[in-house]
Each structure stands twice: as structure tokens, then as C-alpha cells.
Backbone:
């Protein structure tokens, strides 16, 4: 809070990502932290969901705004029908719980199409761009804005 306030950044512009591994460490502290962030207007996402640190009930009972499905789910779903069914069902369930879904690790058009078929709200990955320095990112975004 002090870091955000010292830089004068509006809370609504802050997005915090936590990983499943944090759930295993101190659930009570994490719940208090999420409640505090929500009270300030900060969105909280659960990153790398599906990497196996916590059980499904623990994860889905957390009051987060966004579930980011780990790339391993998407990649496995491309090869295994059971995983594809699970990813679609998981996305649908997360939506029914009032959260949004991000599919991580999207690199190909086929993966993008599958993430869309799963009704993911957003996709993230090299399909759009690889990580880049800040100045390059500004240029990348400026070029996309000019085209639209």
C-alpha cells in the first residue's frame, strides 16, 4: 500500500498476481491480503493455476478476480482429449463462480482458437509478442493503436 501510494498510482490500475504456491504457505494471511486489496480497488489474479500446489477446493474458494490457467493445461489439451474437456469445464466453472479466465502460453493459432473455444476472457503468450524492454513495448503498442 505504501509503495502504491508513494508513487501516486490509482489503486484501480494495479493488478496483483499470486501463485498457487502462496496458498500453501499461509492461507489466513493471503485471505486478509486479498480482502485489503479488494477494499482498495486492486484486482487480484491467481497465476499458474493447475501446476499442482493446492487442491481445487482451496483454490476456487479464494476470492480472486481472475484465474490464469497455466500453459501446461493448454499444451496438454492440444494432445489429450481428456485434458481438453477438463480445460473447457474448468473455464466454464470459473465463470460460473464470477471470475474471469486467462489462458497462458498461447503460441500458435491453433492454441488461440482452442482458448477461445474454452471461452477464455483473455489469452497471453508469444502468439502476440515475446517479452520485451519497456521502450520496445511502447513502440509495439503504438504501432497496434495506429493500425486499429
Residues:
Amino acid at each position: 500500500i505504501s509503495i502504491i501510494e508513494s508513487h501516486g498510482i490509482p489503486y484501480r490500475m494495479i493488478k496483483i498476481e499470486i501463485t498457487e504456491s502462496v496458498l500453501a504457505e499461509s492461507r489466513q494471511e493471503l485471505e486478509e491480503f486479498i480482502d485489503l486489496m479488494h477494499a482498495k480497488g486492486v484486482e487480484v489474479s491467481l497465476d499458474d493455476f493447475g501446476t499442482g500446489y493446492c487442491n481445487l477446493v482451496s483454490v476456487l474458494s479464494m476470492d480472486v478476480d481472475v484465474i490464469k490457467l497455466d500453459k501446461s493445461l493448454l499444451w496438454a489439451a492440444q494432445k489429450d482429449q481428456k485434458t481438453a474437456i477438463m480445460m473447457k469445464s474448468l473455464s466454464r466453472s470459473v465463470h460460473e463462480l464470477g471470475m474471469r479466465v486467462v489462458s497462458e502460453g498461447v503460441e500458435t493459432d491453433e492454441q488461440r482458437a482452442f482458448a477461445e473455444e474454452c471461452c477464455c476472457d483473455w489469452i497471453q503468450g508469444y502468439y502476440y509478442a515475446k517479452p520485451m524492454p519497456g521502450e520496445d513495448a511502447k513502440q509495439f503498442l503504438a504501432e497496434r493503436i495506429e493500425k486499429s
